[in-house]
Amino acid sequence: MRALAASLLLISPVLAVADQDPLEARGRWSIPERKQARTPPMGWNSWNAFRTEVDEAKVMGAAQTIVDSGLAKLGYVYVNIDDGWWLKRRTRDGRLQIRTALFPSARIQGKDSSFRPFTDRLHAMGLKAGLYTDVGRNACSQAYDLHSPNLPEGSTAEREVGLHGHVEQDIALYFREWGFDYIKVDACGLNVYGAASPVVDVRKQGYRPFEPLIDQTSIARTDIPAVRGLYEGVAAALHETNADGDYILAICNWGTADVRSWGKQVGHLWRTSGDITPRWTRMLHNFDSASTRALYAKPGAWNDPDMLFVGHGDFDENHLTEARSHFSLWAIINAPLIIGYDLRNAPKSLLDIWGNADVVRINQDPLGHQAVIAYASDDVQILVKTLSNGRKAVAVFNRGLAKQEVNLTAAHLKFSADKPIELRDLWTKMTLPAFTKETTLELEPRETLLFEASGTRRLPDGAYLSETPADINVAVDGVLNPEPDPVVHRMAGPWSGTRDSGERPAYTGWGGAQADATPYDQALQVAGRRFDTGLGILSGSRLEVRNGGRKRFEASVGVDDSTRNVADKVEFLVYGDGKLLQRSGAVAFGDAARPIEANVDGVKLLELVVRQTTGGSPVPVVVTWGEAALR
Ligand code: GLA
Q1: Does domain 372-454 have CATH number 2.60.40.1180?
Q2: Is 275 designated active site?
Q3: Where in the chain is the domain with CATH 2.60.120.1060?
Q4: Dist CA 560 CA 523 (whole Å)
Q5: What is the DSSP string of 120-187?
Q6: Cα-to-centroid distance, 447 and ligand 1 (Å)
Q7: Which of 9, 12, 104, 212 is deepest in the core (most CB within 10 A)?
Q8: What angle do CA 52, 54, 57 make, to 5 degrees?
Q9: In angstroms, rounded to a whole number, what is the distance separating the alpha carbons of residues 409 and 404?
Q10: Whose CA is nearest to atom 3 of ligand 1?
């Protein structure tokens, strides 16, 4: 009943505004303000090192190394237990029981168990504690790790260790009673426990069938509102249990159910893809699932391409180039930096990677701007991130096995081409000779060069909006039917080899708003005029933009040359604190980019709206806010 009341509370404001035009200016930032995860969470998690063979000695060993090595001081504070910790759900009262054989300190009061002694120890070390659960009735290991000695035990009901039907009770237990600070909420309970599950024989294993809400291969067969609603229920319970806001909700539904568009509303981070493995091409896959989504991340809300695999397989101590690449890339796209290695035995070469204070600083920059892709190809990418110190971080990434010669230009950095630019290598700590216009860099196979760049900003009195993605909320992106994003590297069979028909595009988000590219990953261009900066979006969209005290908004707007819908007209509207400031008038495909300017002196929040003014085609129009800037 309490759970129902809480979810109604959360849902009713949404119902109340259901009739409101989604493009109508609201005059407010619509992502909930969150106290935690103002920068991407950092820490350690047991899964990539131990899978379900997690135990207290391993976790405390990691915690001790994190403190002793100085990693804690750099910000690695969350110590998270993943799948494998539970014994059963007690039928008498529904209380979760810990597998105390693995966590001896949890054994208290005869037959009961509590993680409080464990979290007390972590807190006394200056660390924070995280736990794992599932939003369904059963967890992932109960389907995928049937050989594990640490699966929940007992009757069907006792093995229902997930949150479903117990949200309030479990969240109160984990946070209020046990003192956890962070929860990772998986979603296997929603997708692999159907009566006809291809993953696990639910009858044979004695699980209660759960009609899948998620189909990982089909967005059409996924119940997006139901999945979102279940996570909203968890968010509501967390909010109720932790009135001080001191908690983190990590949504782990692997990029399904269109979470890339709503994750920011519900949790502090959300997985954008399936699980990472210690393979180079899988790392590319996970990276690509988050790297094009800069406009969807910001303080309190982060894209999560999964935990680090530094130290294993293609990223082990014999592959430090790859390990540094993986870490640099996660750092620059503001991914959570969660170590997945047995830290009791970590060689210095790996500790030096996680412990590179300059790289961590890039990731933890307080403004929270995710890097934007300045140059895209399957071989080489250049990503640029605006820093709070006025400089830019830039990653030059060689994705392949050939050496590469890369021209890094002032335009990539949005620096003036005729003023000197300096690059400091954040791995070698060397500063390269200053250059103007462009420089040429040599990259080894799979190498990522990570620099902090100083130069003169092309817009010294302000910023292009694509330089400040954290200040933009994509409130409505204009996507009518979510479509899988094809611009994600497709590696060969991470789980089933090449037995099936291959790795197909799976994560929706195609058509979502982009910085410096169209929603379909084209360069921005209006009536033949190329824009190297701007926002690309669809008609039927509304962006909320925080104005940090700037006086003027300006842009050159139009229908992008890449649009499929060339028939319909659109109008661009600029609002300040809910009031209309400027409108473009109707714009058609082929019209020259039209300047639009507004005085925003004193305005706190801008809203950039694009409405379709004719309705002939069911396909939205691709539109460009060229050189959109606040100054
Ligand atoms: C899923 C998650 C992983 C891990 C396992 C545990 O696969 O995506 O990160 O938590 O479950 O079983």
Answers
A1: yes
A2: yes
A3: 517-630
A4: 9
A5: HHHHHTT-EEEEEEESSSS-SHHHH-TT-TTS--SSTTTT--SSTT-HHHHHIIIIIIS---EEEEE-
A6: 28
A7: 212
A8: 170
A9: 16
A10: 275
The model's pLDDT over 68-84, given as tens digits with 9 standing for 90+, comes to 999 999 999 999 999 99
Task: Pick one of 3.40.50.2000, 2.60.120.1060, 2.40.10.240, 3.30.420.140 as the CATH number of 517-630.
Answer: 2.60.120.1060
Render pLDDT for 375-429 as a digit per residue (tens, 0 to 9).
999 999 999 999 999 999 999 999 999 999 999 999 999 999 999 999 999 999 9
pLDDT band at 150 (very low <50, low <70, confident <90, very high): very high
Ligand 1 atom at minimal distance to the Cα of residue 145: 12
> For 45-271, which CATH superfamily applies?
Aldolase class I (3.20.20.70)
Distance 261 CA to ligand 1 centre (A): 22
**Which atom of ligand 1 is closest in space to residue 139's alpha carbon?**
12
Active-site position among 82, 170, 258, 275: 275
Q: Residue 532 burial (CB < 10 Å; 0-12/13-18/19+)?
A: middle
Take residue 534 and report the two structure tokens written for it: 């701007």
Residue 9 has pLDDT above 50, yes or no: no
Which residue is closest in CA terms to ligand 1's atom 11? 140
Using most ligand atoms within 8 A of CB, pick from 45, 48, 50, 83 the residue to mutate for ligand 1: 83
Ligand 1 center to residue 551 CA distance, Å? Answer: 47
d(CA 87, CA 198): 25
Candidates 182, 183, 186, 286: which one to mutate for ligand 1, based on the most atoms within 8 Å of Cβ? 186
Sheet with 541-546: strands ordered across: 472-476, 541-546, 605-612, 570-576, 579-583
